[in-house]
Amino acid sequence: MSEDSIRELVAGSLERIRAARTLEELEAARVEVLGRKGALAIAGKEMGKLPPDARAAFGKLLNGAKQTLEQSYEARKRSLDEGALSRRLDGEWLDLTLPAPGPRRGHLHPITRIQRELEELFRSLGFAVLDGPEVETEYYNFDALNIPATHPARDMQDTFWLEGGNLLRTHTSPVQVRGMERLGPPLRMIAPGRVFRNESVDASHEHTFYQLEGMMIDRDVSVAHLLYFMKTLLAAIFHREVTVRLRPGYFPFVEPGFELDIQCLICGGPGCPVCKQSGWVELLPCGLVNPNVLRMSGIDPGEWNGFAFGLGLTRLAMMRYGIDDIRHLQGGDLRFLEQF
Ligand code: FA5
After folding, report:
1. Which ligand 1 atom minimizes the distance to the CA of 316?
2. pTM more than 0.70
3. Domain span at residue 146?
């Protein structure tokens, strides 16, 4: 192999190295030129065929060629590495002076919002806000409310019974009893909370829903007091005139008992699935406390009397926000909840 062919090889290889546009292309050029089976290695093998006195000069030439090509390779590699790094820095650049987006803010569930508004209203009227257990005894859920085991009124509320005779409370009324026992008369209390019934779910019935119980015990309490508080409550919730009607209603723990219905605010009266086509929605059963209930909680009905009501908070939320299916409220779909 002549000196000229070595120079040609170097010139061609330098061109090849400089032409590499990516690290992968450069690596391929390195293997072809400087690799174990590359052009320089092949030229090295030629050395053995030369006469001994020519070998030293040829070896020097080859070493020089190798050095030149290695330097050229290193230089090209540095330049490609720098290019890759600056492209990465450009792509991954972060402006650390930008304000952080911060956590996403949630908001209160519509039922919680109504509950809190009512708590505030009743507190301002001198009522205590009480809480009670969701797992109740038969005594507090039924017996102490004048509904003994054999009473047909037990069938009015389909009950989830638990092992051992306890139950999931079917209404917030057991908290009345706990309130009377704990605080005694005179008493003004409300008890918002979750209740459970073993019933089939439809547009206006849930198995798990919210009620707000209210009770006032004092001397000479009449239906006029009851009506005053119920009207104050509805005005605070709806901020507009709502048509109501009172029907006689039967609950063993009140006498007389009433059902306060409001005209359906979803359809405005002509009928829809929420009001079962009747134009009215049952919202607020209430009445004067049955003397038996007072007596069972240690209060003398000769001296004290009172009223009680059990507002359906979930239905109230539907009426206030125009929700036509109760299942939306606890369905957990954020697209629904984000509207409030
Ligand atoms: C009661 O639960 C009585 N404890 C209320 C009461 C308290 C009467 C104090 C007198 C004195 P009722 O079963 O009607 O009553 O339920 C009360 C309210 O809860 C209803 O008016 C209705 O608004 C709501 N409600 C009843 N069942 C359901 C249900 N399945 N889904 C959603 N709301 C319901």
Report:
1. 23
2. yes
3. 110-337
